[in-house]
TrEMBL record:
Residues 68-124 form the HTH marR-type domain. It comes from the Bacteria. The lineage of its organism: Bacteria, Pseudomonadati, Pseudomonadota, Alphaproteobacteria, Sphingomonadales. This is MarR family transcriptional regulator. GO terms for molecular function: DNA-binding transcription factor activity. InterPro entries: HTH_MarR-typ (IPR000835), MarR/SlyA-like (IPR039422), WH-like_DNA-bd_sf (IPR036388), WH_DNA-bd_sf (IPR036390).
Length: 164
C-alpha cells in the first residue's frame, strides 16, 4: 500500500508579483556596471556607515543631515536595482515621520527624487532618484573618492598658515 503522501501530486507554487519583481530587480543589480560605478556604490555604503559611527562619538542628532541620508539610500538602492518605499526612507533617514515627509517633499520639489505609485500595491509609493539627483550623487561621490585617493595631491590637507 502506498502512502497518501506519495499519491499527491506536487502543486507548483507561483511567487507573488511583488516577489517576482524583487527577484528580477536584484538579478539586474550588477548588469552593465563598471568597476567605477560599483566603487561609487561602495563609497555611498561607507558614508552611511560613517554617519552611524558619528552618533557613537557625538550626541545623536547633533550632526545629522537627514536629506543626505535619504539621497545615499536612494543612490545605493537605485544602482543595485532595489525598490524603495516612502516608509523605508522615513526609517532610513532617522527623522520623525513628519520631518521625513517634509524632506521628501522638498527633495521632490528640487527635482532630486521622483515618486510613483506602486503598480502592484497602490497603498505604497515608490521613491527613486531623478536623473538630476543621480547625476548630483555621482558628482559628489566622485569627489569623495577623489579626496580619499592618497595619490591625489590636491586632496592632501594643507598646513595651517595663520593670517597676518
Amino acid at each position: 500500500m502506498k502512502s497518501s503522501r506519495s499519491a499527491k501530486a506536487a502543486i507548483p507554487v507561483q511567487p507573488s508579483p511583488v516577489a517576482q519583481r524583487t527577484v528580477e530587480s536584484l538579478a539586474r543589480a550588477g548588469e552593465g556596471k563598471t568597476v567605477f560605478e560599483r566603487e561609487l556604490v561602495e563609497c555611498a555604503r561607507r558614508l552611511i556607515s560613517l554617519r552611524k559611527e558619528v552618533d557613537k562619538h557625538i550626541p545623536p542628532g547633533l550632526v545629522k543631515d537627514f536629506a543626505w541620508d535619504i539621497l545615499l539610500e536612494l543612490f545605493i538602492n537605485g544602482e543595485e536595482g532595489g525598490i524603495v518605499y516612502v516608509k523605508q526612507l522615513m526609517l532610513a533617514s532617522g527623522a520623525t515621520p513628519t520631518s521625513a515627509m517634509r524632506l521628501i517633499d522638498r527633495l521632490e520639489d528640487e527635482e532630486l527624487i521622483e515618486r510613483a505609485p506602486d503598480p502592484l500595491d497602490h497603498r505604497r509609493v515608490i521613491v527613486g532618484l531623478s536623473e538630476r539627483g543621480r547625476n548630483a550623487m555621482i558628482a559628489l561621490l566622485r569627489k569623495v573618492l577623489q579626496q580619499a585617493d592618497p595619490d591625489n595631491l590636491t586632496a592632501r590637507p594643507m598646513p595651517y598658515k595663520p593670517r597676518r
